[in-house]
Amino acid sequence: MLKLLRTALFFSVFLTTAAQGQVVTGTLTDEENEPIIGGLIRIANTTAGTATNLDGNYVLNLLKEGESVLEFSLLGYAKETRTVTVAKGQTVSVNVVMKTSVSDLSEFVVVGYGSTEKKDITGSVVSINSKDFNQGSVNTPEQLILGKAAGVQVTPNGGSPGSGSTIRIRGGSSLNASNDPLIVIDGVPISNDAIGGSPNPLSLINPNDIENMTILKDASAAAIYGSRASNGVIIITTKKGIQGSKFRVGLNSVNSVSTVAKYADVFTADELRAYIATRDTTALSLLGTSNTDWQKEIYQTAISTDNNLVFSGGLKRLPYRVSLGYLNQNGLLRKDNLERQTANISLSPKFLKDHLTFEINQKSTLSNSFFANQGAVGAAVAFDPTQPVKTDGPRYGGYFEWESGPIPNPLSVRNPVALIEQRQDISTVSRHIGNIQADYKFHFLPELRANLNLGYDIANSRGSITVEDSAAAAYSAQNTGSFNQYEQYRRNKLMEFYLNYRKDIKSIRSVVDVIAGYSYQDWYFESPNFRTVDGQGDTIVGTQAPAFPLSNSQNTLISGYARLNYTFNQKYLFTFTVREDGSSRFAKDQRWGLFPSAAFAWRIAEEKLFKKMKHLSDLKLRLGYGITGQQDVGANFNFLPLYTQGENSASYQFGNNFYYTLRPNVYDPDFRWESTTTYNGGIDYSFYEGRINGSLDVYYKKTTDLIAEINIPAGINFGSRVLTNVGSIENRGIEFVINTVPVVRKNLEWSVGFNATANRNNILALDRFDTPTDLGTETGGIAGNVGSFIQINSVGFPVNTFFVFEQRYDAAGKPIESGELITPNNPDYNGDGVVNAEDRYKDTDAYVDRNNDLIINNQDRYRSNNSAPQLIIGFNTSVTYKKWTFSLLARGNFGQYVYNNFQSNTGVEDAIITPQGNINNGSVNAQESGFSGRQLQSDYYIRKASFVRFDNINIGYNFGEIGSKISSLRIFATIQNAFIITKYEGIDPEIFNGIDNNIYPRPRIFSLGVNIQL
Amino acid sequence: MKRSIIFSLLTFVFLISSCLKDLDREPLNLQTSIAVYKDPANYIHVLAKLYAGLAVTGQTGPAGNPDISTAIVDEGFSSYLRMLWNLQELPTDEAKCRWTDTGIPDLNKWIWSDGNQWIRGGFVRFLYQVTSCNEFIKQTDDKLLDERGFGDEDKAKIRIYRAEARFLKALSLFHAMDIFGNVPDITDENKFPGTEFPVQMNRITLFNYIESELLAIESSLSPRSAQEYGRATQGAAQTLLAKLYLNSQVYTGTDRYTDVITYCEKVINGGGYSLESKYTNLFRADNNMSNEMIFAISSDGSRTLSYGSTTFLINGSGFPTTVVAATGDTTAGSSYPSLTLRDTTGSTAGWQGLIGAKELIRQFPDSGQDSRFQFVTGLRLPDILAIPNTPLKQGYIVKKFRNLTSQNVFGGNASFADTDFPLFRLADVYLMYAEANLRGGGGNSGQALTYFNALRERAYGNSSHNAAGISLDDILSERSRELYWEAHRRTDLIRFGKFTGGSYVWTWKGNDAAGTSTAEYLNLYPLPASELTANPNLTQNPGY
Q1: What are the DSSP E strand ranges found in A813-946?
Q2: DSSP readout, A833-872?
Q3: How far apart (Å, rounded) are the C-alpha atoms in residues B423 and B230?
Q4: Which of A56, A92, A308, A774 is 20 to 30 A (C-alpha) from A299?
């Protein structure tokens, strides 16, 4: 049915013709009398309009005779309004000089189900346009706004191609549920679920097609998205064609070189020989004679290219934009590669004298990845540098490997180069996001409009991992290597409908804007289960076909929502929203959640007293309150008593038969929404026509009915822990933004922006009842041994607080290790009258015995710092001088701590001179700490990790028009991740969750770009 | 055009009303409990899970989809047997573990606390078994079977399944009682799983409950002759009763040695069991063929996979040949290092963890002759001087369990064992009989000596080392020689008053390399802190 409807609509595009009649023409120029290209001219209160051409000229057909109000706008300029009177068939000329504006209060900002003028916003919203995006080699959307918005922390996940970032808006409001914000692309809320074979779901969106990213931070802004808005909402709007504009072709090409910014600090071959000589001379015989720098062997200087071709224009009433993108990105790790082809089509046809408008978007991506074996990152820092890469021996493809008899030593590190070279991990992912949005303004009541949005997000992936039969990593007696494959299909369907009524009731100086809507969204996932086969594709003897040929799951969200905006006297603004969400993830009587919000804003600058203040352009006070929810918990049927059938590998033998098992799963029949209450207070300010502007926000968020996995008393359920609603956490914070334009001259403009965010989070409750003895829940697993955690969530402390032993130090400042000989001067420690090997440090010498029971165990650990930064700052500045532009972005995190797991795991004698009879490399910290065994839970490894990173330095030159063919040519050069100022010793202090363990280094990227408009 | 819009609106209203039912989604790959119990063919699969709960750690072998959350304990660690074994063996004079993984050094060194992951994991695993059994017992009530309209044949089968589930429940409650003492009362299957917090029950109440359950099902279970291998029989219930009575003095303060004799006799005389002729065959990949096995935890290298069970004991004892011995070690027909790791243990995985304490080796003064002496000595040093981070050559390697058949054929999988773990076997019953007789439980003292000597004759291959008379201390030593590393040691030492206190000390007892006296409260492990915070009705064991 819908297909038929769509076809009908497409046809009508070609049947509609433009009306002839009244015409307004003119030229838009800036203050320096330069023509303004792409300036928008709109008939007020309609969507009809046009844009200026390359000479700044425009022609606008008017439907109406007599008086019309025209609005002239362009980003970066103050909006102008003109009233024209045009008689039937007449042509009138209106020329407008546009003034530069730093903060355009009349700029439209999308707020979810519609948009509003910036001056009318009541919530905490940041909108960033493409002109302010980070430049250079930017391959995932969130990196466009890295460091640009207060309260939005974007932490890159590492250096592999397309690996994306972790985004946190105002801290995390959940413990176990997702803390990722909701992302809405052109009206389609997309799934944050990982797609197998794709490094990151957002990496399938081409950043070049994005026009604007708007972040709804507080509940009053985000509550219209109800149960998915607890962690904020990011609304992405893609670029569109402009009505009436000429056919244009644009080409954008960025070519970059990535280099390793910093290597992990491990011993060189000679340093290792020296270290071993001081620790255990018998181990010297195990050393080889080579000098291999394994990190240099696995990393490369990576070259990448990103090219985009854009066609756009406005065929009468059919603005269109088509873009094709091709990205080929190489990773620092050899063989790591992402190839991405994107095609975007956007059409915005208008019908019925502009009463009916459509917006049709189709974004398709095809990505091919080759994933280098990231195990090589850890192997390279641990592999013995005195051994050669290759021995050209008969086994393992000639690579050097540690052996145990005739087979590879099962417990030792594998050759890092072999790990990369002998493994093929490839995937192909396609993703299609599309929607058709119809907006109809009723003929009999133009204040009322209906909007229908049908959308989908479909992803398909398949991939395989093949390990060569000669590889030590896939050793088996049969020498068959290994082969694994996977396939996934995700589908997300959306249907939304809303009615909007907006009326300016001049008589009572009121503007009323009401919206009411309905939304249906459904997610389906399936993945076939493949039989295990060996590297030759043959079935492995003894293995069975999988119990289920297909894994799949489905969940549905149905919602109703409404919003009322009421403005009185252009000064007092009220917003009320409510959304009711029903999710199939909860039992029938827990299914529905109601999420209301209210906000008030007072445009103080409009008050008489302030209007007299010459330099005050705007001053607005905002107060907001709202409740949002969370249902993104991963589990779809946590509320149902279900039995899981066991795999054949976990069956049990009775007599001579094996029986598969049926296991009852843990469940919570009362499972329900998590809800977050947010209070927000803010001030927006603007002075000197916006040359100084910014905002200050304070907020408090409290999440109750936290979806948390907690221990359950033995016996009352199937399992040891259940995902249920218990406990509460809070986040409080302050955000400050200031943007200034200190210099605006004819040929020179200089702007400076700064933002700062401080967020504190605290766990208020974790248990169903008051248990002061509860230590909390350990979290943050670390490498080094099984079952070790370094962080804890406990009441009264921030999430992920480090939970460690307090290290003691000797007089020389060296950390003490239990069981080590006491040095210097070997005192007679045990008092037996002789100084001998028995005089060693005890456990209580190494760690502080906090409960004074003379034994050191779990009860002696204490809560140290936590990994979240106390203060996050972003600084950006740009200078435009004639045709030159220069910009710089710096970001800083302060008061954050990192657990150096790389040092604690590899920087000890036992890790280097291993029990399995070979030598490893390790952190040079081994020398400094002098530890022989791993002291994993010592606070010695908790390090301060504040930093300032100069993340983006860009210089560009705009040639402008060249000849008659090229209307614009711009070239630029960028350095990303240029340098970092920090005292932290590891590769990178910026690690989400604060556990530093073999991270894929973030590259330093040098890029050259060119942008041509024809 | 207008018609299209109106039409789409109508379609839309229709869609809204029909969409709400989409919120009633049901899983596509899983079954609800109602669906499971509708079909009589499913029951044996639920029962299989109750048994598998002793062997595997989740629904995918060797790891994946775990029963116990990895936030409680790492899945590979969470196997029933691995928990039981570590708690029963690591603090004793039989075994130590070199690994530094959180909680392991604490068991070796006697510095465990209520946060220890093995204590937490053991507690949770034992009681998880009880909860799973409870659900099955509740669902197999005769009334429910009638309601489901099952035929007599199905019902008869399911009744036996039910008795087996009650045995498995009693077994896990026995382990919980032995190790933790005062545990939450989740014995009532009609209440648990449920919504109430369980109250605490003391050891005596639990003892009485276990006894009454075992007595009640003794005759409902199949005799060994009528049951397939792997499932609980009357003999298994009788052995567990004998074990319960043997330790009654510890659990309740009252001795029940006469009952020990009664139940040992039932097993020995009526069970149809006989001693395996060769001791080492009891711990090989084909030990399911043994007539001595009363109740075993099954393991299979391709179908029943976990990192617990005998795989843990075999791979845990695998060491690189370079640290095993420099010259040939001729014990038990093996020679090093000309053989590979696989030839030693039957497995290619060497986890380099489990080692024997020197006190265990000293139980064998005539090592060359006793076939139960299954150790690798060679270059190895008897003293374990450091924990954790024990040097690689310290401590003897135990090669009692192997993934090799009695014919020295490798198990089917190079890194996962086919070997079953003998939880109860006839030799143990012989020694229980002898001990109960010595402790005044009646029976025949001549018979006791015969049983005792039967084990020695098997060990030495002839009667040259037979005893003329036996004392209680002889029994304790013989149990160690015969049953070492079979997860009995802590219980045995407690029954003999030697686990805590200073009358007997060994390597690392009391956090001292040479061993020192320990406090009596350590006879019980603490209830895990996580359980105390989850259940307000519980009080910690005294001393912790």
Answers
A1: 862-866, 871-881, 884-894, 897-900, 942-944
A2: SS-STT-B--HHHHB--TT-SS--SGGG-EEEEESS-SEE
A3: 11
A4: A308
Enter the tokens of residue A413.
């590190």
Distance in angstroms (rounded) separating the CA atoms of residues A651 and B55: 10
Asked if pLDDT for residue B335 goes beyond 70, the answer is no
Phi first, then psi, for residue A103 (nearest 5°) are -125, 105
Instruction: For residue B182, count CB atoms less than 10 angstroms from its CB and return exposed for 0-12, middle for 13-18, buried for 19 or more.
Output: buried
Is residue A73 within 8 A of residue A79, CB to CB? The reply is yes
Phi first, then psi, for residue B152 (nearest 5°) are: -60, -35
Return the structure tokens found at B518.
């320990």
Contacts of residue A977, defined as CB under 8 A and 6 or more positions apart, other chains included, come to: A261, A949, A951, A1002, A1003, A1004, A1005
A367: phi then psi, degrees, rounded to nearest 5: -125, 140
Which among B28, B101, B197 has the least Cβ separation from residue A553?
Answer: B28
Peptide bond into B388 cis (omega under 30): yes
Q: Which residues of A touch B77 (CB under 8 A)?
A: 786-787
DSSP 8-state symbol, B536: T
- Greatest CA separation for chain A: 117
DSSP A112: S
Half-sphere exposure of A362 (CA within 13 A, CB side): 6
Paired sense of beta strands A995-996 and A897-900, if any? parallel
- Which range of A248-252, A897-901, B362-366 scores highest in mean pLDDT? It is A897-901
- The answer, for B198 touching chain A at a CB cutoff of 8 Å, is yes
For B103, which DSSP code?
A: T
Q: Is B460 helix (H, G, I), strand (E, B) or coil?
A: helix
HEC states along B203-228?
Answer: HHHHHHHHHHHHHHHCCCCCCHHHCC
**With an 8 Å Cβ cutoff, is B492 touching chain A?**
no
Mean pLDDT on A190-207: 76
- Asked whether the bond before B193 is cis by omega within 30 degrees of 0, the reply is yes
Give which of A688, A689, A982, A740 is closest to A875, Cα–Cα: A740
Question: What percent helix, strand, coil does chain B show, rounded to 5?
Answer: 50, 5, 45
Burial class (CB in 10 A: 0-12, 13-18, 19+), B367: middle
Q: Are B52 and A819 an interchain contact pair (Cβ–Cβ within 8 Å)?
A: no
Among A268, A474, A399, A404, residue whose Cα is nearest residue A914: A404
A64 vs B175, which has greater pLDDT? B175
Best CA proximity match to A909, nearest among A403, A267, A264 = A267
Q: A518-552 pLDDT, tens per residue?
A: 999 999 999 988 887 877 777 776 566 777 778 88
Task: Respond yes or no on whether the N-terminal peptide bond of residue B337 is cis (omega within 30° of 0).
Answer: yes
User: If DSSP states are collapsed to H, E and C, what string results for B17-31?
Assistant: HHHHHHHCCCCCCCE
- Distance in angstroms between the alpha carbons of the first and the last residue of chain A: 42
A779–B321 C-beta distance less than 8 A: no
> Does residue A450 sit at the B interface (CB-CB below 8 Å)?
yes
Contact B484, B360 (CB under 8 A): yes
Cβ A441 vs Cβ A355: under 8 Å: yes
DSSP label at residue A180 = P
Residue of A580, A602, A520 lying closest to A556 (CA atoms):
A520
Q: How large is the average pLDDT for residues A698-721? A: 89
Q: Which residues of B touch A404 (CB under 8 A)?
A: 320-321, 340-341, 350
CA separation for the pair A595, B352 (Å, rounded):
57
Q: What ipTM goes with this model?
A: 0.94
Which of A719, A721, A917 comes nearest B320 by C-beta?
A: A917
Alpha-carbon gap, residue A475 to A937, rounded angstroms: 34
